[in-house]
Amino acid sequence: MKKSVLISGITIADAVEESFVGDILLEDGKISRVAEKINVQADSYVDATDKNWTAFPGFIDIHIHGAAGFDVMDATPEALSGLAAALPKEGTTSFLATTMTQTENAISAALQNIQEFEAQEGQAQMLGVHLEGPFISSKRAGAQPIEHIIEPSIALFQKWQKLSGDHIRVVTIAPEATHGSRFIKELAEEGIIASIGHSDATFEEVQTAVTCGATHVTHLYNQMSPLHHRNPGVVGAALLEDALSVEVIADFIHSHPSAVKLAFRQKGADRLILITDAMRAKGLPPGVYDLGGQDVQVTEKDARLADGTLAGSILTMEKAVQNIQSILNCNLKELVAITSANAATALGLSTKAKLKAGMDADVAIVDDDFTVQMTICKGTIAYNKECQK
C-alpha cells in the first residue's frame, strides 16, 4: 500500500522555473503530482494555506563530518544513523559522509562502515563519501592532523574505493602534491569529483589541475593559498576559473560576509554550493569535543583547537541560508541552486533537487524567515517543528 502526503497551498521553489503557489502529492517516496490544486485522499496532509511557507527541494550537504555527538570517523553504524537522523531538523535530506585525515586503518574502517550503512525511514540519505584528506598540504592542514598527511596514491585510493563499495564521490586534494596531476586525471576518468582544498598551490598549479579534470573547490578561502596581487593563489583561481564550483561555509566565522558576497557575485548562483563542514558538536551544548583525536573547544558560535585553529563548524544548513539571505537576499531560484541543485548536478543525481513528478520526495518547508518548519525524506515526514514544541 502506498504511503501518501498531500502538501497544499504552498509556494513551490525551483532552480530554473518560476515559483508558484500550488499542491504537491507525495506517494511511496516519490513526487507523483505537482499542480495548482490536487483533490485526492492522502494518508497525511500539510496545509500551508495562508502560512507564507515555501517548499524547497531538500537541502544537500556535500561536506559534513558529524552532528549530535556523532562523527563519520567513529566508524560505527550508530554514528552514521545518528548523523542521518539529526540532519532533517535543518532541512537536509541527503549528504556526503565526510572523512578526515587519519591513519590508513582509521579511514579504512570508516569507509567499510559506510559501505554497510543503510539509512532508516525518516533519516537523511547518505549519497556517498567526501574523502577530505589525507592527500593534502601540510602547509594548509588546518585541523587535519599533519602527521597523517601523505602524498596522493592511486593504489591506496582504489583500495579505499573498493572498501567503500564505490561510494567515494568527492576527493579533496592539494594539486601541487607529488603526482597530483596524475591523481586528478585518474579521478576524472573514474567520474569522481577532484576538489582542490587544503592546498598551497599557485594560481598556475590550479590551472593545471583544472586542465587535468579538477572541477570543485573545498571550503573556499579556508586553508588555501590566499589571493595576492602578485600571486592570486588557489583563491584567485577558484574565483576566476569557470570550470570550478566552490563550497562556502556561510557561518560568517570561516569567511567574512563580504568575502561570501564576493564569491557569490563572481561565481554566480550556479557555481556556489552551501555546506556546513560541521563536526560532532553541532546541536550540542558548548564544551570540549573530539575531532580526530584532538580536543576541540566548542562555544555557542564556533569550534577551535587549543591554538585557535578553526576545527570545522557547528553550522546548520538552515542558519547558512538565513545568513546568506541577510547579505544577498537571493531569489528562490538562486536559493534552490546553492542549497541542492548545484550539488545534485555535480554528483550526477537525476532524481534530486526538483519538486516535479517522478523525483524523490525530499522536501524542506520553510517560513518567511527561512526557519525550517518541516522536512520530508523520501516521502516520510522526518521533522515537524510544531511537534517539537
Automatic annotation (TrEMBL):
It holds the Pfam family Amidohydro_1. GO terms for biological process: N-acetylglucosamine catabolic process. Zn(2+) binds at E132, H198, H219. Residues 55-381 form the Amidohydrolase-related domain. Its EC number is 3.5.1.25. Binds 1 divalent metal cation per subunit. SUPFAM superfamilies: Composite domain of metallo-dependent hydrolases (SSF51338), Metallo-dependent hydrolases (SSF51556). Pathway: Amino-sugar metabolism; N-acetylneuraminate degradation; D-fructose 6-phosphate from N-acetylneuraminate: step 4/5. The active site is at D277. Keywords: Carbohydrate metabolism, Hydrolase, Metal-binding. It catalyses: N-acetyl-D-glucosamine 6-phosphate + H2O = D-glucosamine 6-phosphate + acetate. Its cofactor is a divalent metal cation. It is an enzyme of class 3 (hydrolase). The keyword Ribosomal protein does not apply. One of its GO terms (molecular function) is metal ion binding. PANTHER family: N-ACETYLGLUCOSAMINE-6-PHOSPHATE DEACETYLASE. Belongs to the metallo-dependent hydrolases superfamily. NagA family. This is N-acetylglucosamine-6-phosphate deacetylase.
